Amino acid sequence: MASRDQLKRTYPPLYKSLGDMASDRLAFFHILERLKTQKRTGWVDNKIPNPESISDHMYRMAVLAMCTSDQKLDISKCVMMAIVHDLAEAQGAPVGDIAPREGIPKAEKRRLEAEAMHNFVHEMLHDSPAALRIMALWQEYEDQATPEAQFVKDLDRFEMASQALEYERAHGLRTLQPFFDSSIPHVRHAEVREWGAHLLQEREEMHSRTGPQGE
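The structure assignment produced for this chain is given below.
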């Protein structure tokens, strides 16, 4: 099954600079639209009606970052990191929102994402200060070596679980347990763990009111 899924992935050539900064920069601005229109693969696989886009996910993460009371964190950096952490998925076919069921090794996924980011930074944004800032934020998130990167990763987990609960509530589902199992138990930041505990309590109360699925 995984091999068939992998065959569905196509790898068109990456963008080549036209040698004109204005044109290349506009190409980058336009490619960002894909984040608004590309639906998150996990929800598509679960046949969720009108599922969220990649940018929907990142936007709420950014606002969540602003809601923390942790004064030890660089909140501005966390907000920016949340906004760019899935930027490579704008590359579309070469990367996109790769799901685990596709069987693409993590090392290959990281390679594809790094290649996409390199393309954005060098071919489209000409290594400008803004481009290097975006790349540094993305790389810091990938490396997971700073408190800010680890916090944003926890927001990624919490946001996904929040969305899963909202889809369960909206569509009367009881089939999204894997989204909770792969997120909330792995949260490390104390405040986000507290948010997660409240979320799970809300879910339990919701399910106790609605009864077993199909009842």
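Interim note for the steering committee: Residues 1-7 have pLDDT under 50 and may be disordered. The radius of gyration is 18 Å.
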